[in-house]
User: Which sequence fits this backbone?
């Protein structure tokens, strides 16, 4: 089975940028749509962005549209989340997840992702 492993989190000032990476331990991400989710203290885990297996289709939650960009490099078996113009409300643990899909589909629902990473903390100070 595939095991996502996140990296790249940290502390950044409001208006700054971070790039999260998600690599695979075990099987490759071939055949999987990939998603980024986040969970702030006291809140439910929520969808942030997703990308199809081919990389040709992407989707974003409204709060991050225009600021975050998801991409993938299948040759490197890595998925990225570029986060710009960060806000304090972006503070959360960010999770990478993999869900089996057709070449052009992605998912926004948590339950369609079967493999999850341990998460990486992103803290945005005001």
Assistant:
């Amino acid at each position: 089975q595939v095991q996502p492993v996140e990296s790249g989190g940290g502390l950044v000032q409001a208006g700054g940028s971070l790039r999260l990476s998600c690599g695979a331990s075990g099987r490759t991400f071939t055949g999987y749509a990939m998603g980024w989710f986040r969970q702030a203290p006291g809140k439910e885990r929520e969808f942030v962005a997703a990308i199809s297996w081919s990389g040709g289709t992407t989707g974003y939650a409204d709060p991050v549209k225009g600021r975050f960009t998801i991409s993938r490099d299948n040759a490197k078996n890595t998925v990225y989340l570029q986060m710009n113009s960060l806000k304090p409300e972006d503070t959360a643990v960010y999770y990478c997840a993999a869900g089996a899909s057709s070449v052009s589909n992605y998912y926004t629902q948590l339950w369609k992702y079967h493999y999850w990473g341990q998460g990486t903390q992103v803290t945005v100070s005001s």
Observations:
- The two ends are 40 Å apart (CA to CA).
- The mean pLDDT is 96.
- The first strand starts at residue 2 and ends at 7.
